[in-house]
Amino acid sequence: MDSLVLLFSSFISCAIIYYILFQFLNDRFVATYKNKLVYILVYGASIGIVMLINMRMNSAINAVSNIILYGIISFFFYYEENTKRILRVFEAEALFAASVICEAFGVYLIDVILYGFNLMPDNNAVQKSIETMFSKLVLIFLYYILVSRIWKKSLLGAKKQYGLYLIMFIYSMVNFLIVAVIAVSDNSMVLLIIMGCTIFANIYFLHFIKFSDERNYYKLQVEMMQQQEKLQYENYEMQREKYKLAVSILHDVDKHMKVIEELYQSDIREEAINYSKQIKEMLKPLLPFQYINNPVLDCLLSDKKRIADKYNINFKIDLSDVDVNFMRPVDITTLFGNLVDNAMTACKKSDESRYIGITIKEHNDMISIRVENSVVNTVPIKNGMIDITKEEKPCIGLLNIQKCVNTYMGNILYKCSDKLLICDIVLNRIDD
């Protein structure tokens, strides 16, 4: 019976270890073969090989065999174009080392708990099985909560997920303690099956939470792209309206010129001058003010300035001799469009003084951008960033701004005082 108990716990242990390996490799790399059956067979073969080796009860041989299998699987069954094979194998071996540390911590933790509550089973096989299974439970939780996020970081906060992880872990630990209490009975195999079912149930729920977290992440990415597309479309619409106005003016340009010539020929100079001024005013919206030596930014700021004047917003632009041509046009539109739109949205809420100020300066290979605007209420700031959990509406725009800043290896810092929100950005010049 004891050998059957140890064999069952060994099966659970191997199944968990290689489940985590394949989960890690699938998240990090691309499968070499499209047929999923190949990986099912490799997974089953790995479990069988390691179980046979475990029967020798030699920890050194067990470790070496796992290291070899981790290397073979990562080397032959997965690939990534921009990563060398040796680095891929190194990451797999690093995962194995992290798994060993997590399991050792799990064994130590359950032993402390069992000795502390005087629940240590008399049966040595049951004790080893409880240690093995509990260590795998700890490994699963630490992998999902800590290890996997070292290699794959998410933009989303996961406070609720971490709380759910903790509740599930405590619930599972209580189940294991209950099993330890009744492990003195003759139904040790049944108790181990219960522990195994608990572990696999946790895997299912943790995988579901991970899937939900990734779904929310990609949903946010789609919303960010949609917001960026909307900004580009609005900019396109403004340019299209300008084009229509230009066409209408050019259509009648001959008529306007004839009228002005006739007025001069008739020596009605004052009327001719007034007529010329009217034509100039008609052409004025079509000519972007040259703030900086970049046509995209000049057009964007000119359009935003006209919109600001419409809403009685005091829009000040202070640009020194700065070169922003290292930025892609789409990044210029996304960054400055979101910054100004967010500032305008805040200003429109105010019935008092409405103010937006933009300052851009150059410092060696970096440019600094400051956007400040009046606000009605104090904006929640946390660690130099706007707390998007309390400011839901502009969340997507703020994340798009952060994404652009990260593209140019920059930094962003928000401050709010005396009803004035200040956004300071530093971008590094990246020349192709």
Question: What characteristics describe this protein?
Answer:
five-stranded mixed β-sheet; two-stranded antiparallel sheet; alpha+beta; 11% strand; 432 residues; Heat Shock Protein 90
The side-by-side strand order for the widest beta sheet comes to 3-4-5-9-8
User: In DSSP terms, counting alpha (H) and pi (I) runs of 4 or more, how many helices?
Assistant: 12
How would you classify the quaternary structure? single chain
**Estimated share of beta-strand residues:** 5-15%
Q: Give the SSE string.
A: HEHHEHHHHHHHEHEEEEHEE
Calculate the mean pLDDT score and round it. 78
C-alpha Rg (nearest Å): 33 Å
The largest pleated sheet is described as: 5 strands, mixed
N- and C-termini, Cα separation: 69 Å
Structural class: alpha+beta
**Domain module count:** 2
According to DSSP, the number of beta strands is 9
Note the overall shape: elongated
What fraction, in percent, of the residue positions are helical? 55-70%
Stretches with pLDDT under 50, minimum 5 residues: none
What does this structure look like?
The protein folds into 2 domains: 2-224, no CATH class; 288-428, Heat Shock Protein 90 (2-Layer Sandwich). The strands form 3 sheets. It has a 5-stranded mixed beta sheet. The chain has a two-stranded antiparallel ribbon with strand order 1-2. The chain has a two-stranded antiparallel ribbon with strand order 6-7. The chain is an alpha+beta fold. The longest helix has 64 residues, at 188-251. 67% of the residues lie in helices and 11% in strands. Helix 1 crosses helix 4, helix 2 runs antiparallel to helix 3 and helix 6 runs antiparallel to helix 7. It has helices at 2-28, 36-54, 59-76, 85-116, 124-151, 159-181, 188-251, 253-265, 269-283, 295-310, 329-348, 395-407; strands at 30-31, 78-79, 314-319, 355-363, 366-374, 381-382, 385-386, 411-417, 420-428. It is elongated. The chain starts with a helix and ends with a strand. Strand 6 (381-382) and strand 7 (385-386) form a beta hairpin.
